[in-house]
Every structure is written in structure tokens, then in C-alpha cells.
Amino acid sequence: MEVSTRFVPLLALILAAALSREALAAKHVVGGSEGWDESVDFDSWASARTFKVGDELEFKYTAGLHSVVELGGESAYKSCDVGSAVDSLNGGSNTVKLSKPGTRYFACGTPGHCEQGMKVKITTASADGSSSTTTPPSSKGAAPSTSAASAHLGFVALVASLLLSLALFF
């Protein structure tokens, strides 16, 4: 029986590592408190954040009034060529997972909205890149991301599992 309890601390550490990694991913509400709306300066919003692999973008908007289209490249982004979209979302609340490093381009598919600035360029760094914790910007609609709270939660989970492991070991 003693042999089986010997592995409990190891299992607890593995669980803590898995929970901490997932907890470090941030959920970015695109446009902050204003959401996906024409009134937001998306260039300022995006430049105030660091996006990492594993993070999520949450688009919140009025369905029927707006939509989210993912564009295939910078040329389509600059010219607002929403007809060349690689994906289209229109439910009013959509989550996009940032699954690999690189740049992705999003725009509103409603005619004229992209040309009015309702578009955002997201550059994603590798998961082991720089921190996604940001200083809250002063521009309208620019709420900070949730990564600082997530990082704290991951740290708390790691410490709790280490304490549990120690308690079970001794």
C-alpha cells in the first residue's frame, strides 16, 4: 500500500502543471468594455496587448448589426476586402483561439464598417514569449486583458498542489 501513495505527490505536481499552463492563457475581449463596435480604436486596443499562443479573442457585438470575418492576409486587411474572408462569424458572441504564432486579420463584414476602422490586426507570439500582462491603456474601450488574474490563479494552483504533495509525502 505504501508504494501506491508514494506516487500521489507526483500526480499532484503533474495536475498542477497542467492547470497552471491552461490558467496562464488569457481571454481578450476585443474592444474591451465597448466590444466589437465602430466606436473603438482597434489599433490602439491591439497595440496595448501582447497575444500568446493559447490565448483567446472574444468578440462581443450585436448580431445582425455586425459580424466578424477573418481575412486571409494584410492586403485584404488594408483594402477591407471582406469578400475574401477565410472565416465568417455572426452569432453576436464568438471566441477565436490563437493556436499558433503569426498575424491574423479580422474585420466587420457589414458594408462600410471595415472602411470606418472596424478591423483589428492580431500578432500572436509563441507561448514561451513575452508576458501578456499589459498596462491598462487610456483609450476608449480598452480594458486590460485577464492574463494577470489568470497568471495569479495558476500560481495559486501550483502552490496549493505543492503544499498538498508535501502534506501527503510527510
TrEMBL record:
Q: Which residues form the signal peptide?
A: 1-25
Name the keywords, alphabetized.
Copper, Glycoprotein, Membrane, Metal-binding, Signal, Transmembrane, Transmembrane helix
Q: Where is the chain membrane-spanning?
A: 149-169
Q: Which GO terms describe its molecular function?
A: electron transfer activity; metal ion binding
User: Where in the numbering of this chain does the Phytocyanin domain appear?
Assistant: 26-126
Q: Spell out the protein name for this chain.
A: Blue copper protein
| Gene3D superfamilies according to UniProt | Cupredoxins - blue copper proteins
Report the domain of life of the source organism: Eukaryota
The UniProt record lists the keyword Transmembrane helix: yes
- PANTHER family recorded: BASIC BLUE PROTEIN-LIKE, BLUE COPPER PROTEIN
User: Which Pfam families does the UniProt entry name for this protein?
Assistant: Cu_bind_like
Keyword ATP-binding listed? The answer is no
Gene Ontology cellular-component terms listed = plasma membrane
